[in-house]
Fold this protein.
Amino acid sequence: MNEFIELSYDEWESTYKPRKNPVDPDASYDGYMFETYGSELEFIRTINPNHVWTLGDGDDGGMYIWNGYSIINRIGYFITAVPFEDDTTIQVLVSHNWYYCENCQEEMEDEDNLIRDAFQDIDLDKCPNCATPEELATAGFTQTKEGLWRV
Ligand SMILES: [Zn+2]
């Protein structure tokens, strides 16, 4: 039986205790992340596989950490002091979806794909930054001083 566990980044950090990257003190993710090439990858490959985690892009556009050494969609690796159990799949949500605007090449966080769905609905390759107020209204948004609201 393969058990599937979803964790937040904070839960993962406190449960499995990532170790600092000894090769690069300025590594991403508070010094925890390892690159997928060179001496950092060589170091990863010397570690017991049950302590290795892969950072990558999810199919939904979000970014995740999964347990184990993986090559597909990889962005980086982590090593934890606490090993994960065999026969488990652990998925850690690192960041939400991002929306990429074809029109102005802007990239923005798009939790739950609200922006993507709204603009797809009206068949418009734009984003809240470059759409006209009329287009925004058509997509169901209103712009206020506090930010963008879906109505
Ligand atoms: Zn745009």
About this structure: Strands lie at 3-8, 52-57, 63-67, 74-79, 88-95, 98-100, 107-109, 141-144, 147-150. The chain has two domains: 3-95, 98-150. Residues 101, 103-104, 106, 126-127, 129-130 surround zinc ion (CB under 6 Å).
